[in-house]
Amino acid sequence: MSASMLPGLLLLLSLAGCTDRSNQDTKEESPETTSRELSVDALAGEVDSANRYASTVLVVAQEPVAGKSVKGCSGVLLSPRWVLTAGHCVCPQRPARVPDEENARIVDGTTCSASATVKVLSYLPMTPGEPSEVRMASHQGKVHAHPELKLQLDAGGGIVSSHADLALVFLEIAVKDAPPPPALAKKEVIPGESLTVVGHGHDELRGSMGGDRRFNRTRVLRREPPGAERAVFEQPGRKLYRGESGGPCLRETPQGQELVGISSRSLEPSCIGTYAFQGWILERMQSTP
C-alpha cells in the first residue's frame, strides 16, 4: 500500500471506529461493514485478523452534559452485557488545584460520563488479493466507574498517583454471539512476565484512532506504588499504536487467556492491575444496574 493511500485508510477506519461524533440512542445492534488493508510495516503491532482477541472492543464515551462523543478507547467484553475499560476513558480530566502545579489534572468519579457506545468488531475471512471486510455492531451502555477511582496527573500528563482506575459499561442489549471472554487472572503479574496488550490503537504520528484491532507482545518491567496497582511494561520503539487506553493486558496460558490488567497506554506504558479489584468486578456484574 502506498503512503498516499494510508491517510485515506486511517480516515475510513476512524469514521467506522471510535471517532463517532453522533449522538444516537439506538437500542439494537446496528451492524456496519468496512474494508481494510493490511500493512504491519506501516502500522505498529499485528492486526488481529484471526479474531483471537475478539473480546476487545471500541469504547466511545459521551460528554456528561452535552452527550457528544468525546473519548475513544478500547475495552474488553467480560460477558455479553458487561465491558471493562479504564476509568480515565470515561471520566474526563479536571483541574487538580495542586499547589505549585498550575496545570496538574485529576480524574475521579465527579465528572464521569453517564453512557458510552461500545462497538464490537469482527474480521471476516480474507479473499486473496482483496481487502478483507470488518463487521461492527454498535451498542449503548451505562457507565459504572469504580467508586474509589482517583488518578492524579502532573502538568505534563504523567501519572503522579493512581487508584482504582477502572470502569464497567453495562450494555442495554446483549451482544449476539459474544466472543469468549478472557478468564480473570488467578494471580498478580510479576516483573519479567510476558504480556499481550490489545487495543484499537492511537497513531501518535497522525493523531487519530486507526480502528484496526491490534496486539503487541511485551514484558513487565516493574510494579508501581502506591498499592502496586500498575504494572509498567516495555515501550515499543515506534510511536505508532502506543497512545491508547482501555484494552486488555493478557497472560497467555495453556488453558487460555487471563485478564491481568487494563491498558493505560494513553498516559504511560502500563497496565492497571485487575486482580485486586476482582471482588468489585464480580459484585457489580452480578447486581442489577
Q: Which residues form runs of ≥5 with pLDDT under 50?
A: 1-30, 33-43
* Count of helical regions: 3
Counting DSSP E segments of at least 2 residues, the number of strands comes to 21
Instruction: Specify the helix fraction band.
Output: under 10%
Q: What does this molecule look like?
A:
The chain is mainly beta. The strands form four sheets. Strands 3-4-5-12-9-8 form a six-stranded antiparallel beta barrel. A six-stranded antiparallel beta barrel has the order 14-17-18-21-20-19. The protein has a four-stranded antiparallel β-sheet with strand order 6-7-10-11, with no helix packed on it. The longest helix has 11 residues. It is globular, with a radius of gyration of 18 Å. The relative contact order is 0.20. The N terminus is likely disordered.
Short description:
This protein has 289 residues and is mainly β.
Question: How do the strands and helices of this protein lay out in sequence?
Answer:
Elements: H1 6-16, E1 32-35, E2 46-47, E3 56-62, E4 69-79, E5 82-86, H2 87-90, E6 94-95, E7 105-108, E8 115-123, E9 133-145, E10 150-153, E11 159-163, E12 166-171, E13 183-184, E14 194-199, E15 202-203, E16 208-209, E17 214-224, E18 230-233, E19 245-253, E20 256-264, E21 270-273, H3 278-286
